[in-house]
Amino acid sequence: MPEETVLIRTLPVERANSACGYTQGDWECREGGYLWYAGDGEGYDPEDTSEICPCCRTKDFLEAAKDEAEACSSYSNCGDSGTGVDIWASAEKVALRANPVAAAQALQELGVVAALESDDSPDGYSVVLCNTQTEAIAV
Ligand SMILES: [Zn+2]
Questions:
Q1: Distance 32 CA to ligand 1 centre (A)
Q2: N or C: which end of the chain has fewer CB within 10 A?
Q3: Would you say 44 and 26 are in contact if contact means Cβ atoms under 8 Å apart?
Q4: pLDDT tens-digit readout, 76-123
Q5: Distance from the CA of 90 to the center of ligand 1, in angstroms?
């Protein structure tokens, strides 16, 4: 009996709409390019789109972090706290680790991030310019 040849057809994958396989601890990418918490075994809520996947939706992820960093001078939740600058810095780090190529490109496209940092000034915060070295990173 000759061995049968099995044809595996590769279907075109809509990257933005399917899970890319990215994981970060107990968090996993799901359909739509959002992360969900897989640690509790409860599956995911399709309506929950709060965590954008930094791997397959790198630019959206960084854009969201930019908006947040520019709007929030300090935050604290679940024992974690920091400033807008921290929000941006950690998002940048996550994105560069998850998808270095897309992250470098997105950082260049997004340009300077005017992140907020709480301090003792009358306004309660100051603006810290981040992502100012994109030209250098790109070269
Ligand atoms: Zn993903």
A1: 8
A2: N
A3: no
A4: 988 889 999 999 999 999 999 999 999 999 999 999 999 999 999 999
A5: 18
- Is the pLDDT confidence value at 62 over 80? yes
Which residues, other chains included, contact 15 with Cβ-Cβ below 8 Å and sequence gap of 6+?
A: 33, 56
Kindly give the distance from the C-alpha atom of residue 61 to the centroid of ligand 1, in angstroms, as a whole number. Answer: 10
Question: What's this model's pTM, rounded to 2 decimal places?
Answer: 0.80
- Tell how far the Cα of 37 is from the centroid of ligand 1, in angstroms: 13
Neighbours of ion ligand 1 (CB under 5 A): 20, 22, 29, 53, 55-56
For the chain, how are helix, strand and coil distributed in percent, rounded to 5?
35, 20, 45
The residue out of 19, 37, 53 marking a domain boundary is: 53
| Same domain for 101 and 39 | no
